[in-house]
């Protein structure tokens, strides 16, 4: 059985230029990396495939230069094309075992989960390296209904694989996530929407480190 690839603890960065007040995804990623983020996911739901490939390739090169893990959301084909470190898929996307056949043994597969049942299924699937747990709170970045803190607590106690807590997490409620044992946390609009993204990341990381 293959060993899971471990993702870094701390903040999981996701692009979202629709929340970035005019800053491009590349500009946001540069600032996130400057702030100390060690894993970046390229996520964009509106651009054309051609635009996504261009952005993914630019961000991939930056991440490679800075030693940051680069994940592509949903698009296995783009992840392969730009030689990303991995891909993040949802419950309605391709099965993780089929993704594994395409991207190979040494790439990362992340899977969004929204329930204890989905989380346990992912835990028992060696092709899944880490999971997203959420959305914890209501969020404008996804259509999925919030799952609340109960699933997060279940994941900490029962799902012994890396996960990132995601969904509606902001500075004011970050303590609710960290205090329950989460080691990796994703904030989107709170980070890309900040006037000084790098400084915002440092402040958030300090809050995480204090717990």
Keywords for this entry:
alpha/beta, globular, 40% helix
What does this structure look like?
There is one protein chain. By secondary structure, this protein is an alpha/beta fold. It has one domain (10-210): Alpha-Beta Barrel (TIM Barrel). It contains nine helices and eight strands. The chain has helices at 25-35, 49-66, 76-81, 96-103, 116-123, 149-158, 174-178, 189-192, 197-210, and strands at residues 10-14, 39-42, 69-73, 86-89, 108-113, 130-133, 163-165, 184-186. Strands 7-6-5-4-3-2-1-8 form an eight-stranded parallel sheet. The protein is globular. The termini are far apart. 42% of the residues are buried.
Q: Which architecture does the CATH hierarchy give at level 2?
A: Alpha-Beta Barrel
CATH class value: Alpha Beta
- Extended strand count: 8
Report the CATH topology name.
TIM Barrel
Looking at this structure, what is the CATH superfamily? Aldolase class I
Could you tell me how far the N terminus lies from the C terminus, measured between alpha carbons in angstroms? Answer: 34 Å
Structural category: alpha/beta
- Amount of helix: 25-40%
Number of discrete helical segments? 9
For the largest sheet, list the strands in their spatial order.
7-6-5-4-3-2-1-8
What's the pLDDT, averaged over the residues? 96
